[in-house]
Design a protein that fits this description.
single chain, about 190 residues, mainly alpha
Length: about 190
């Protein structure tokens, strides 16, 4: 069930959600220990659930698109999308803008949806795999675990270099996009 490309994809997709859960945890430093544990579990569960659902829905969209007349070029387009996601991660890592996150259940649902849109796009590349719900479950589990770790790390650390996390995610997307393009190298020659 676990394989390296899916684990790397899960790590790359989970980093946005982890950084957001870290930021939300900084807003909870004045709460009791029980409230922190409850909020951390809820945040990690919501982010993991949305990553799972969006990746799974994206795989269905990718399945439908792959078996259309344009399916041959589909994987090449996904490789280009991965490079675009990498560019966005690198661009955000060099930006000096600060992000503010307000706590509440509806904002967390919105943040989970927004951070999982890239999971939908990435899921389109899994459209031809059998049992994509297993890969989506793996990505959701990775997201849940990383969000939990980052939420509780936010209780102990006041700052973490978000730019390095975004750069790591960008490198992972470059690796995934490069792997797809490497599989189609015969088209370029």
């Amino acid at each position: 069930m676990f394989n390296l490309p899916i684990i790397l994809l899960g790590l790359a997709l989970a980093l946005d959600a982890s950084v957001v859960s870290f930021a939300v945890s900084l807003l909870h430093k004045d709460r009791t220990f029980g409230e922190k544990v409850k909020n951390g579990f809820i945040i990690a569960m919501v982010f993991g659930l949305f990553q799972f659902l969006m990746l799974w829905l994206g795989s269905y969209a990718g399945y439908l698109f792959t078996f259309s007349n344009y399916g041959y070029y589909f994987q090449l387009a996904i490789g280009v999308i991965f490079f675009g996601l990498a560019f966005k991660c690198f661009q955000d890592s060099f930006s000096s803008d600060t992000k503010q996150v307000n706590w509440g259940f509806l904002p967390v649902i919105f943040l989970a949806f927004v951070t999982s849109v890239d999971a939908f796009i990435s899921g389109m590349s899994l459209g031809t795999l059998p049992q994509t719900y297993l890969a989506a479950f793996e990505v959701g589990t990775i997201t849940f675990l990383l969000c939990s770790v980052f939420y509780f790390a936010g209780q102990f650390f006041q700052a973490i270099p978000e730019r390095w996390l975004l750069r790591l995610a960008g490198l992972i997307f470059v690796f995934l996009g490069g792997q797809i393009l490497w599989n189609y190298r015969y088209l370029l020659s």
